[in-house]
Design goal:
The chain is built from four helices and eight strands. Strands 1, 2, 3, 4, 5, 6, 7 and 8 form an eight-stranded mixed beta sheet that branches. The longest helix is centred in the N-terminal third of the chain and has 26 residues.
């Protein structure tokens, strides 16, 4: 006698947990992968949302442009003839005296910057030598009333036309703004570096 193999066990109870199991290993892996993907996206996307509210090189660029315009259009020049600097006020500015309505304050404060967070250097450069491509830091020669290269200034009354801290050599986060101006009959360049 053979047994009928097609018979079902309808009167038996199902095994405990076999019919109630709703999560497989594949479901768990897909869920964790989606969760981690969303979490990584959030960590990568949120800093981009906040970046317009943090200090950046763009803010330094605006600061340097504003400072060099303030110097060349109003402080050392005049609004009537911008980019034409007054020689006496330019020399007094770099000598850090109170002439021409200057105050004896740090350079950053005179330019409207925050000295606690921003450093600035202002230098006047030009061609004071016989070579056509030279860019020398200039000096006001008081005895000859002329602009000369800073390396040739020897008199105590001479004023080197640079002011502020020198730019650190290892600083990559600096911005430079330039303006070509007219000073004592010569074309010179005012260089403002902000870091």
């Amino acid at each position: 006698m053979q047994r009928d193999r097609t018979r079902t066990r309808s009167n038996e109870e199902p095994r405990a947990g076999a019919a109630l199991r709703g999560q497989t290993n594949l479901d768990f892996a897909i869920g964790i992968s989606l969760f981690l993907g969303v979490l990584i996206f959030i960590f990568l996307f949120v800093p981009g949302l906040l970046s317009p509210f943090t200090a950046s090189a763009q803010a330094q660029t605006v600061t340097a442009d504003r400072a060099v315009d303030h110097l060349t259009k109003s402080v050392l020049g005049s609004p009537r003839s911008p980019y034409s600097l007054r020689t006496d006020c330019t020399v007094q500015f770099f000598d850090n005296t109170t002439a021409c309505a200057f105050e004896k304050t740090p350079l950053a404060e005179q330019l409207g910057l925050d000295p606690a967070t921003q450093n600035v250097n202002v230098t006047v450069v030009g061609n004071a030598s016989s070579t056509a491509t030279a860019r020398d830091t200039l000096c006001w020669d008081d005895s000859g009333d002329s602009l000369v290269a800073a390396t040739t200034c020897s008199n105590a009354d001479d004023v080197v036309l640079t002011r502020g801290q020198p730019l650190p050599a290892n600083n990559e986060a600096s911005v430079t703004a330039l303006r070509v101006v007219w000073l004592h009959g010569k074309d010179v360049t005012v260089v403002v570096e902000v870091w």
